[in-house]
Design goal:
Layout: E1 2-6, E2 16-19, E3 29-39, H1 41-48, H2 51-60, E4 64-65, E5 69-77, E6 89-92, E7 95-96, H3 102-105, E8 116-117, E9 129-133, E10 137-139, H4 146-150, H5 152-166, E11 174-177, H6 183-195, E12 198-203, H7 206-214, E13 219-222, H8 228-235, E14 241-246, H9 253-258, E15 260-268, H10 281-286, E16 290-293, H11 299-310, E17 318-323, H12 327-335, E18 342-346
Parallel strand pairs: 11-12, 11-14, 12-13, 14-15, 15-16, 17-18
Antiparallel strand pairs: 1-2, 1-4, 3-5, 3-9, 3-18, 5-6, 6-10, 7-8
Length: 347
Amino acid sequence: MKAVAFLEQGEIEVLQYQELDNPPLGNDEILVKVKACAVNYLDIHARRDRPEIKQKLEETGTPHILGSDIAGEIADISGNQPHLKIGDRILLAPCIPCGVCSDCVRGYENLCDTQELLGFQTNGGYAEYVKAPAKNAIPITDTLSFIEASALPIAYLTAWHMLITRAQLSAGDDILILGSGGSVGSAGLQIAKLVGARIFATASTQEKLERAKQHGADVTINYKDVDFSEVILEETNGRGVDVVLEHVGAATWEQSISSLAKNGRLVSCGVTTGNIGEINIRKMYQKQLTIMGSALGTTKELRQLVHLAEQRRLIPIIDSTLPLKHAAKAHQLLESRRNFGKVCLIP
């Protein structure tokens, strides 16, 4: 099969379009003919320096294939899987939990300490074929294209878990979405609009701000020009917003907290600008703020997203699609932050 893989971590040049063997199936696994694989910033971190990937490369001595967002058709099946058949259109849930720990048993597989992620601890979808546990297959109908389906697992699932499950965003809430042009930010835009919230969105260019308005933002802010917390307070008559979707980290942490109203909730899923942020504890308890973390989501939530997308109540935002052999260009798009929405690869 054709695949994009690398034998050592580094810059974009380590990505090589090459011929590799089809992955052999283990017990209760499926072989998927990849029709679309979306690109995530996690892929870039994995390519550059994530220690988990370095360890895998050292232990196996074989090329690593990225790609966690995978949609395609079942090409082969191992074991008795009466609910699946060859040719089925599916989306793969990206998380492979242990299934037996207390978190998994309670349905919180995204908290599993030994979980693996397709394309991270395992080989992924930057290839013509990928193998995965049969239980990770989620059927999709013809109403959802493979490209749209591939946009859902990481970004949309992360944003859904952040806003719906963790922050409990509801109609009438005011929400601030940082980096609205990125994968999680643009997904958050659509989810917040679906809920009926008033949306404040930040971005770095006028073009992205205009795109954010097209996808539901009520107020847009260029974070390079102003302190966005001051704009938030001005636009809300000093009140602030009920929810902040934060995935930037140290560079925006103080402004994000300053943007919160009393009883406000900040939910964070990322730290692209640094892990350490300070907080005024007195202001936190006086305003009764809630600061919470969020990581990925559950298969149940992903099935909800698939249902909404198939109903066309949620239409994934796709920035561009590229042939698999141009995976390096896809990484360049994300690294330069020129994309608005998902970038997808087509084998």
